[in-house]
User: What shape does this take?
Amino acid sequence: MIVRIMGEGQVKLADSHFAELNKLDDELLEEMEGGDAVGFRHTLHALLDKVRELGVPLPDDALEPSELILPSPDATLDEVRDMLSDDGLIPG
Assistant: This one.
């Protein structure tokens, strides 16, 4: 799956990594619902770091359609809330 981190670029991520990413996504959703801004910031960074760690960066000139778009590391709680689906940021 091709994943875009807003403001950074794209990575190719194997489907096998999504179970691990969904745990962080669930944690992020709980923190957002509870209004935990500090926990939200920490977990958002952990989620994006994990995507960077597990993903293979695509070249800057690659024009692949992104199947998943994640917020930038400096996104606000409200900006991320606007990006959420029923499953959170990551489907599944």
Observations:
- The longest helix spans residues 37-54.
- The radius of gyration is 13 Å.
- The mean pLDDT is 91.
- The longest strand covers residues 2-5.
